[in-house]
Specification:
Blueprint lengths: L15 E3 L3 E7 L13 E6 L5 E2 L4 E3 L14 E2 L4 E5 L6 H8 L6 E4 L13 E6 L5 E7 L8 E3 L5 E4 L8 E2 L5 E2 L9 E10 L11 E8 L4 E7 L8 E5 L1 E4 L2 E9 L4 E11 L2 E5 L15 E5 L11 E7 L13 E6 L5 E2 L4 E3 L8 E2 L4 E2 L4 E5 L6 H8 L26 E6 L5 E7 L8 E2 L15 E2 L8 E2 L6 E2 L13 E4 L5 E2 L6
Parallel strand pairs: 7-8, 30-37
Antiparallel strand pairs: 1-10, 2-3, 2-11, 3-7, 4-6, 5-9, 9-10, 11-12, 13-14, 15-16, 16-20, 17-18, 17-21, 19-20, 21-22, 21-23, 24-25, 24-33, 25-30, 26-29, 27-28, 27-31, 31-32, 33-34, 35-36, 37-38
């Protein structure tokens, strides 16, 4: 599937913006040239429009931004051509041209020191105004390295500080580096989704991916980002190799998609010290506000639980057991999706919004399966199992088998449990008040829990909604059992990790 063409914008601190087809494409604010004819401030103006631009009534200024401060010597700038304005002595343009070796067809005007709005080597701005005083072109720049001009492309993309051999720049005999009279195009041409490659759903392998490709006309380093927000918040960026291909440079990445839904992606190319983002719609954007990214709707991969597919259905936060080996906190998850899922990369926390700390390994849940996460250590697994006497076939696995983290203690004075998907987005959340010692809290409504934390529906009582008193203890709850009866899925206990169980029932 071929996606639409991307557009670019330079970063804010080194921007070149045009509203009438005019761009400032180069600035020298700190010349170190030993040739006095070239040892001046100067800038280059480019006409990207389709017709010649009469600059008779136009003017420009530095950061004072005052229309009429300095003109353009009544010049008409042809389409696709550039115009160099310097601080040099008036009527001495030949010396500047010779020092840089600028072709004869490129117009140069030495405005003279009195008229030229001298630039600060520590950073400055250039404003270009039309005859009405409207700002029609702009460039902002920071501190300049000695003798290295700042460069922008014909589309206003910042190219960095001048470097001989890059973007048409060269080292002139006097010691400065730049490209006056020469500028380049810089666009990311197109991006393609070139393959959907989900594995078999039956395996639930956490490596489903969509392959994206991005191309640039100029060489740089590249990353391709993927996320579930249209603003770039929470995205994962993948550094990808860049290869030299016909007509430019290509970056390609296979990005994992592990939950169904709408995802956004974009390329980020870096040239020198500056980064630029490519989007699929026209308009300006920058690295502070990411909008209008490519959108990928994923419906054919279900490899991790998502909001609404998994619920927190029971929590014990105040055990009455006197045997410390069997009195740990625990909570229960119920998966009600229709396809197998892997918990690989999912995480959980207490009421604190801290995703990615306590992380599941590649545990596979089947439809209607239950997971119970218990705050116990390996040596206490037999005590917990004996204390609750879950049905035969229940497996209890130690929490140390988590990919990362452990079990955050749940407060008996009120707390919560939050569940996050592999992209650290909350998919289930509950809260509970001060506990009744020895009784679990239960959520039986099966409401979607992806929004604000939901309060419990009830405190467990023996004989109600499948709860029982632990035969070898005093606690009341139903870890691993939910109502009404369902068949075929089994139950899964996580004693810090996971266990599977026959005869799971759904609440």
């Amino acid at each position: 599937m071929k996606l639409r063409q991307w557009s670019w914008m330079a970063v804010l601190l080194a921007a070149s913006v045009a509203r009438a087809g005019l761009y400032v494409t180069e600035v020298m604010s700190k010349s170190v040239s030993t040739n006095l004819a070239a040892a001046v401030d100067w800038f280059e103006l480019y006409n990207a429009g389709p017709t010649a631009m009469d600059l008779t009534s136009f003017s420009w200024d530095d950061n004072s931004a005052t229309p009429g401060s300095c003109g353009f010597n009544n010049y008409t700038l042809p389409a696709g051509q550039c115009y160099i304005i310097t601080q040099g002595e008036t009527n001495q343009e030949a010396g500047f041209r010779a020092a840089w070796g600028i072709p004869a067809h490129v117009a140069i005007w030495n405005a003279g020191d009195a008229a030229f709005q001298n630039f600060s080597s520590g950073g400055d701005q250039i404003y270009v105004f039309d005859g009405t005083g409207s700002n029609v072109a702009y460039a902002g720049f920071g501190a300049m390295a000695d003798g290295c001009a700042f460069q922008w492309s014909r589309q206003g993309v910042y190219l960095g500080s001048g470097e001989a051999g890059q973007y048409g720049a060269w080292l002139m005999p006097g010691g400065d580096v730049g490209s006056p009279g020469t500028n380049v195009s810089m666009l990311v041409e197109e991006t393609y989704v070139i393959a959907y490659t989900p594995p078999s759903l039956a395996t639930c392998a956490p490596n489903s991916a969509v392959t994206f490709q991005s191309r640039s006309l100029s060489n740089g380093t590249a990353e391709i980002g993927l996320g579930r927000t249209a603003t770039g918040v929470g995205w994962t960026w993948y550094a990808v190799p860049v290869s030299n291909t016909a007509g430019g440079y290509t970056a390609q990445a296979k990005m994992p998609i592990r939950v169904p839904g709408v995802f956004y992606s974009a390329a980020r190319w870096t040239y020198g010290a500056k980064a630029y983002y490519g989007w699929n719609t026209s308009g300006q954007t920058n690295q502070l506000l990411l909008q209008a990214q490519y959108q990928t709707v994923v419906t054919n991969t279900i490899l991790a639980p998502w909001a609404g597919s998994i619920l927190i259905t029971e929590v014990m936060s105040a055990s009455a057991e006197t045997n410390s080996a069997a009195m740990g906190d625990w909570f229960e998850l119920y998966y009600r999706g229709s396809e197998p899922v892997s918990l690989h990369g999912c995480s959980f926390s207490d009421s604190a919004l801290t995703p990615g700390v306590n992380v599941f390994s590649n545990f596979v849940l089947l439809p209607e399966q239950v997971l119970v996460v218990v705050d116990e250590s390996q040596k206490n697994v037999p005590s917990f199992t004996n204390g609750w006497a879950p049905p035969a076939g229940t497996l209890v696995i130690n929490k140390s088998d988590l990919l990362a983290g452990g079990f955050p203690g749940l407060s008996s004075n009120g707390d919560g449990v939050r569940l996050f998907d592999p992209y650290n987005e909350q998919i289930a959340s509950v809260y509970f008040p001060t506990a009744v010692v020895g009784h679990s809290f239960a959520w039986i409504s099966l409401d979607d829990q992806s929004g604000s934390p939901l309060p419990p529906d009830e405190v467990s009582e023996a004989g109600v909604h499948g709860a029982w008193q632990a035969p070898r203890g005093t606690d009341i709850g139903s870890p691993g059992v939910v109502v009404p009866e369902v068949t075929g899925a089994g139950c899964v206990l996580l004693f810090g990790v996971l266990a599977s169980r026959a005869g799971a029932r759904r609440r």
